[in-house]
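Project outcomes to date are best conveyed with an example. Our students and postdoctoral researchers have been running inverse folding experiments weekly, and each run begins with a structure described purely in C-alpha cells. The record below, which covers 348 residues, was selected by the lab manager from last quarter's runs and is presented without edits.
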C-alpha cells in the first residue's frame, strides 16, 4: 500500500512540483487547495507527467469543519506537507490581517486536527526571510532569527514557533521546517511551473514575461547595493530540486531517521547570484535578451543572502543539482508553453 501524504497548497508552484516528486517516489499524495493563488488546470499537468490523478479537494484550511470532514473521509494519512499560505511580501504589508488569518489559522487547524487523526509528521514551508539581513554569509541554520521586515515574514517566524511549541507539548509528534531560499524554474516537461497572478512580484516570472514581450522592461530594484555589481544577491534554487527535498524530509520522518523532534534545514544551492547575473545567465541559457532599466530600491529588500546548505547536504543526503543555466532554460520553456496556451485560447 502506498503511504498517504497530505499536501496542502498542492496545486501551487512548489506544491505541484512536490506532488509530482512524491508520486514518482511511490507515495500517494492527497491535495487540498482553495485555488486562491493557483489553477485547477495544474491537476492536468500533474496527471500528464505522472499518469496519476491524486485525490483533490477544494477546501479552505481556515474552515475547521471541512478540514475535519476531509480527514474523516481520508483515513491513514501519515504526514502533512503544509505549503498553503499567502506569500507576497508587499501584499502582506498592505493586508496584514489577511496574512495573519490565512497563514496562522490554517496551521492552527492542521495542528489541532493532527492528533485526532493520528498524524504525527508535518513538513513546513518556511523561508530564508526568517534570517532578515544576516550579519555573516552564508547563513546556517544557527544564524540568528532577525525581526521580520513584513507581516509575511513574521507569519513564517510565528508558524515555526507554533510548530515547535506544539511538537514539544505533543508526544510522538515530529516536524521538519524547511527554509527555502529563492525557488525558480519549472518541471522539465513544462507541464507545470509558476503561475503568477497579474503583474509578477518575483524576479523570474518578470524576466520571462519581459523576454516574451508581455512587459516592456525589467525594472532592477537598486544598483547601489554593497555587492560587486550593485544589485541584490540571492540563492536561486531549482524548484524540482526543492521538491525532492520534501520527499527526503517526509521519508526521514516516516523512517524515524530524524535526530530531533523538530529539525530545521536550509534549502539553497549555496551560491549567491546577483540580479544582473540572472539577466546575463538568462541570455546565455536561452539566447533571448531581457531589456532592463535600473529603478529605485524596493522597500523591504534584503541586500544579499545565500545559504550554507551543508547541513541539509550531509543530514538529508540531498543536494541542489540543477545548473542555473538549465533552470533558466526551464523557466523559458514554461513561459513559451504559457504563450502557446494563451494563443490557442485567443484563436478558439
Ligand atoms: C522574497 C522573500 C521570500 C519570499 C518571496 C515570496 C526575502 C529575503 N525573501 O524573496 O522569503 O518567499 O519574496 O515572494 O525576503 N527584483 C527586481 N525586479 C523585479 C523583481 C525582483 O529587481 O521586478 C529583484 C529583487 O529586488 C530581489 C530579487 O530580484 O533582489 C529577487 O526578488 P524576488 O523574486 O521578489 O524574491 P525575494 O524578494 O528575494
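After processing, the design step wrote out the following sequence:
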Amino acid at each position: 500500500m502506498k503511504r498517504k501524504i497530505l499536501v496542502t497548497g498542492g496545486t501551487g508552484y512548489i506544491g505541484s512540483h512536490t506532488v509530482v516528486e512524491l508520486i514518482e517516489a511511490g507515495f500517494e499524495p492527497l491535495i487540498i487547495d482553495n485555488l486562491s493563488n493557483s489553477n485547477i488546470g495544474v491537476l492536468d499537468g500533474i496527471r500528464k507527467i505522472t499518469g496519476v490523478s491524486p485525490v483533490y479537494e477544494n477546501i479552505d484550511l481556515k474552515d475547521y469543519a471541512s478540514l475535519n470532514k476531509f480527514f474523516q473521509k481520508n483515513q491513514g494519512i501519515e504526514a502533512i506537507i503544509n505549503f498553503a499560505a499567502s506569500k507576497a511580501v508587499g501584499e502582506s504589508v498592505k493586508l496584514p490581517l489577511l496574512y495573519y488569518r490565512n497563514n496562522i489559522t490554517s496551521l492552527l487547524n492542521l495542528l489541532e486536527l493532527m492528533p485526532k487523526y493520528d498524524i504525527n509528521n508535518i513538513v513546513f514551508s518556511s523561508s530564508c526571510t526568517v534570517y532578515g539581513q544576516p550579519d555573516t554569509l552564508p547563513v546556517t541554520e544557527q544564524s540568528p532569527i532577525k525581526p521580520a521586515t513584513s507581516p509575511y515574514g513574521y507569519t513564517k517566524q510565528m508558524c515555526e514557533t507554533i510548530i515547535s511549541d506544539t511538537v514539544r507539548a505533543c508526544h510522538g509528534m515530529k516536524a521538519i521546517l524547511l527554509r527555502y531560499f529563492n525557488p525558480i524554474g519549472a518541471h522539465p516537461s513544462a507541464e507545470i511551473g509558476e503561475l503568477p497572478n497579474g503583474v509578477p512580484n518575483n524576479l523570474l516570472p518578470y524576466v520571462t514575461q519581459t523576454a516574451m514581450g508581455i512587459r516592456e522592461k525589467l525594472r532592477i530594484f537598486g544598483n547601489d547595493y554593497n555587492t560587486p555589481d550593485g544589485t541584490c544577491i540571492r540563492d536561486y534554487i531549482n524548484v524540482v530540486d526543492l521538491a525532492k527535498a520534501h520527499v527526503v524530509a517526509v521519508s526521514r520522518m516516516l523512517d524515524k531517521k530524524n535526530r530531533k523532534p523538530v529539525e530545521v534545514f536550509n534549502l539553497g544551492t549555496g551560491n549567491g547570484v546577483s540580479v544582473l547575473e540572472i539577466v546575463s545567465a538568462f541570455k546565455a541559457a536561452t539566447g533571448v535578451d531581457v531589456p532592463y532599466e535600473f529603478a529605485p530600491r524596493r522597500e523591504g529588500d534584503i541586500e544579499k543572502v545565500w545559504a550554507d546548505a551543508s547541513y541539509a547536504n550531509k543530514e538529508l543526503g540531498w543536494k541542489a543539482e540543477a545548473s542555473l543555466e538549465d533552470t533558466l532554460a526551464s523557466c523559458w520553456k514554461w513561459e513559451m508553453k504559457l504563450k502557446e496556451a494563451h494563443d490557442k485560447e485567443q484563436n478558439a
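Residues 37 and 197 are 7 Å apart (CA to CA). The first helix runs from residue 13 to 24. The training component of this project remains on track.
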